[in-house]
Amino acid sequence: MAEKRVINVVRQEGLKDLNNLLFVGVMMAVGVVLRLCAGFLAVAGMHPNFLIATYCLSLLIVRPKLHEAAIIGLISGCISQIGTSMPWINILTETVGAVVMTLLLMLPLPMLLRPIITTFLTTLVSGFLFIGIVSCTYVSPMSAAIFGQMSMVALVTAFLNCVIVTVLSIPVSRVMNK
User: Fold this and answer.
1) Which of 19, 42, 58, 123 is within CB 3.0–4.6 Å of 47 for a Cys-Cys bond?
2) Global confidence as pTM
3) For the packed helices 144-176 and 18-36, what is the interaxial angle rounded to 10 degrees?
4) What distance in Å separates the CA atoms of residue 174 and residue 82, rounded to the nearest whole number?
């Protein structure tokens, strides 16, 4: 009798896999469209940062290498220049955010809490880095009231982003792992 042949399909991590590369591209496109339409989703003048949410979801699913994550963050930062009132800052903050997300994904976190914790902390790092750069360049010295207001925006955005990524991570993960 002939032996039964078994084919093991191993899903590659990172951007070397064409499906992963396409997924990241689609997520960036979705982030741009949602960013441009985010005005109607504002709650008390605050809305999710869809570019951060989409790159967090991408990084969560694709698991790129650190330098690949930095490239994804850099691209996201360049995209975020569309319609910004404070140019150049997001190029750094999104690059750092993507690297932080990738580093956080290396921690042994429970699977159910991973999207919540990593996205929340990534958005906070990106947001507070943004606030720090703004306080050194655009609004120097920054008053406590402006700092408090910007900090509240960063916290609410972090909460909204982690809800979005958590809700989407399970179905997207199932689709990508087929």
Assistant:
1) 42
2) 0.90
3) 140
4) 32
